[in-house]
């Protein structure tokens, strides 16, 4: 079955430091990949998506992610963390070798930003 | 502005009681989804509907029921058979003109309903 693994349930960085949140997927066929952000007691907001066009995808709020087929990865990065980036981040996939139309989510990574 | 409205924001269920969570969208999306969120487990799919009057079970459908009588609405009922209903429930929708296209479209989410047991 298709799955998504997010390494690190909690990540802490200093303000201004690089943010790196890891996501690996398992699928023999490249799926569609998404990163969402969730603030406390709110729904999910789309950060960016990979749908088989450019492998480096730029999203909102200065985030970007690179699709690497050889590593089955789609890690999320931001060059300089801001206090407002503190939230929970979810990687999700659809399509792939199951053709699944609904999203399969990773377990999430909570990002803390220290002043 | 178009979006997804979930109500109520907080809901309490008594033992043996069924409760219904509302989800309404004005995005003209064909597909709608219900997810359950538990701490440390991400989101899990309960039910989804690709079109009016049709819906399919997701990964954790036991103890839940849905209906899709209108394009705009996809209510979720948490029945008494769901023994551990305490969770954050999220409704989502997306568009697509065919089965292969829909997977490419990002889902839009409501702000959720938090369900607790009294």
Record the SSE blueprint.
The complex is a heterodimer of chains A (115) and B (118).
Chain A lengths: L2 E3 L4 E5 L4 E3 L2 E3 L5 E7 L5 E7 L5 E3 L5 E5 L4 E6 L8 E9 L4 E6 L3 E6 L1
Parallel strand pairs in A: 2-12
Antiparallel strand pairs in A: 1-4, 3-9, 5-6, 5-10, 7-8, 8-9, 10-11, 10-12
Chain B lengths: L3 E4 L2 E4 L5 E7 L5 E7 L5 E9 L2 E4 L6 E3 L9 E3 L8 E8 L4 H4 L5 E2 L3 E5 L1
Parallel strand pairs in B: 2-11
Antiparallel strand pairs in B: 1-3, 3-8, 4-5, 4-9, 5-6, 7-8, 9-10, 9-11
Give a verbal description of the structure.
The complex is a heterodimer of chains A (115) and B (118). Chain A is mostly beta strands. Helices cover 0% and strands 55% of the residues of chain A. Chain A has strands spanning 3-5, 10-14, 19-21, 24-26, 32-38, 44-50, 56-58, 64-68, 73-78, 87-95, 100-105, 109-114. In chain A, strand 7 and strand 8 (64-68) form a beta hairpin. Chain B has one helix and eleven strands; from the N terminus they run E-E-E-E-E-E-E-E-E-H-E-E. In chain B, strands 2, 4, 5, 6, 9, 10 and 11 form a seven-stranded mixed β-sheet that branches. A four-stranded antiparallel β-sheet of chain B has the order 1-3-8-7, with no helix packed on it. The interface between A and B is medium-sized, with 27 and 29 residues.
- If you average the pLDDT of chain A, what whole number results? 92
Straight-line distance between termini of chain B = 35 Å
Between the first and last Cα atoms of chain A, what is the distance in angstroms?
A: 41 Å
**DSSP helix fraction of chain A:** under 10%
């Amino acid at each position: 079955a298709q799955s998504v693994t997010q390494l690190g349930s909690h990540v802490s960085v200093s303000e201004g430091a690089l943010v790196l949140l890891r996501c690996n997927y398992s699928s023999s066929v490249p799926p569609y990949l998404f990163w969402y952000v969730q603030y406390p007691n709110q729904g999910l907001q789309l950060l960016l998506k990979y749908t088989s066009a450019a492998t480096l995808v730029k999203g909102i709020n200065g985030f970007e992610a690179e699709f690497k087929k050889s590593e089955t990865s789609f890690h999320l990065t931001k060059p300089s963390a801001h206090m407002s980036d503190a939230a929970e981040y979810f990687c999700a996939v659809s399509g792939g070798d199951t053709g699944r139309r609904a999203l399969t989510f990773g377990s999430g990574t909570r990002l803390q930003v220290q002043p | 502005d178009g979006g997804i409205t979930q109500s109520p924001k907080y809901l309490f269920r008594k033992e043996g009681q069924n409760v219904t969570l509302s989800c309404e969208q004005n995005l003209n999306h064909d597909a709608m989804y219900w997810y359950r969120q538990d701490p440390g487990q991400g989101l899990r799919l309960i039910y989804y509907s690709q079109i009016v009057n049709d819906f399919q079970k997701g990964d954790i459908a036991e103890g839940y029921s849905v209906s899709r009588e209108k394009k705009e609405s996809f209510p979720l009922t948490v029945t008494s058979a769901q023994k551990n209903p305490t969770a954050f429930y999220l409704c989502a929708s997306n568009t697509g003109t065919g089965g292969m296209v829909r997977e490419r479209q990002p889902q839009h989410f409501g702000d959720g309903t938090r369900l607790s047991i009294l």
